[in-house]
Specification:
73% of the residues lie in helices and 0% in strands. The chain is mostly helical. Helix 3 (29-42) packs antiparallel against helix 4 (45-58) and helix 3 runs parallel beside helix 5 (64-75). The longest helix has 16 residues, at 153-168. It starts with a helix and ends with a helix.
Length: 170
């Protein structure tokens, strides 16, 4: 019920149902992960990190909270931790568009040109017809603060290409 309320944009009820679910089943990695999604959407990054970490502690091979951790650390500008969690997520979901977009932004901000080049290539390969934006629009992670709005992706991609082009002219 918590995720339904999150999908409907009712964060107050989502939060309440998330807390109740954990109180009812404190050893449920899924409930902790769902609650982390709600906290992330609310902008409570520390709470989201704590809930996602608890979900992983309950089930170490549970990949669902990895993207939450990657996103929370990206927002906090802790790019080392963000990159770690996105890489872990991509190991299990190598074609995940949002994970690749988040990685692209991290590599751009850190000036990691080889990783940037590789990630752009992977995004372009996955888009087949070159329309990465349509793929972003259809992503269902509504708990990400910056998705599914593809307008925010365009400057990231543009800057990444400009950075690579600038380097190739030197």
């Amino acid at each position: 019920m918590a995720l339904i309320m999150l999908e409907r944009g009712n964060l107050e009820l989502a939060h309440e149902y998330g807390q109740k679910a954990i109180a009812h089943a404190p050893n449920s990695e899924e409930y902790h992960s769902n609650y982390a999604k709600i906290l992330l959407k609310e902008g409570n990054l520390e709470g989201a990190i704590k809930a996602a970490t608890q979900a992983i502690a309950l089930k170490p091979d549970f990949i669902d909270p990895l993207d939450i951790l990657g996103e929370a650390y990206r927002i906090k500008r802790n790019y080392t931790k963000s990159e770690y969690y996105w890489k872990e997520f991509l190991r299990n979901e190598p074609n995940d568009i949002m994970a690749l977009v988040a990685s692209l932004e991290i590599y751009h901000l850190q000036g990691e040109k080889e990783k940037l080049r590789s990630t752009i290539g992977q995004l372009l390969y996955l888009s087949h017809n070159g329309d990465v934006l349509d793929m972003i629009k259809t992503d269902n992670r509504r708990y990400f603060p910056y998705t599914p709005d593809p307008k925010k992706f365009l400057p990231i991609l543009k800057n990444a290409f400009l950075q690579l082009a600038d380097d190739s002219t030197r």
